[in-house]
Amino acid sequence: MHTQSAASTEYVRVRVSATVDGSPINPISDAVTMAFPVAGNTPTTWYSASWETDNTTTPPTYYVRCLVGPSPGLVTLTANTLYDVYTKVTDNPETPIRNTGGLWVS
């Protein structure tokens, strides 16, 4: 679980891995979005996200990230609330949607 102050603007990052026939692949050409529903609810609003690559690892580590916070974040969340973090990767033919953990906004 990630914790963030309601006054803070920062990226919420989720590690993503992809394989084809058991071999890791680079997924960054796929479109990505993230959602932050109150914990236990179904996501209804999706926010633009981007890719971040850590090339210091072998194979590289890929993260989906969304800027969360009051300014200039894409989404402002309410203090003292637990949110689920959902990640959606749009590929062809698959579009996996995963609940990737929690975000406590203090």
Summarize the structure in words:
The protein has 106 residues and is mainly beta. The protein has one domain (2-105): Immunoglobulin-like. Helices cover 0% and strands 50% of the residues. The protein has no helices and 10 strands. It has strands spanning 2-4, 10-16, 19-20, 23-24, 31-35, 47-48, 50-54, 61-68, 81-90, 97-105. The strands form 3 sheets. A 5-stranded mixed β-sheet has the order 1-10-9-5-6, with no helix packed on it. Strand 9 and strand 10 form a beta hairpin. The mean pLDDT is 95.
Please give the CATH class.
Mainly Beta
Q: Give the assembly state of these chains.
A: single chain
Total beta-strand segments: 10
Give the N-to-C terminal Cα separation: 13 Å
* Average residue pLDDT: 95
Instruction: State the share of residues found in helices, binned by percent.
Output: under 10%
| Largest beta-sheet details | 5 strands, mixed
The CATH topology label is Immunoglobulin-like
In the residues, how many domains can be counted? 1
In one word, what is the shape? globular
Going across the biggest sheet, name each strand in turn: 1-10-9-5-6
Strand content: over 45%
The secondary structure category is: mainly beta
Number of helices: 0
**pLDDT below 50 for ≥5 consecutive residues: which ranges?**
none
- Rg, rounded, reads 14 Å
In CATH, the architecture is: Sandwich
Strand and helix order? EEEEEEEEEE
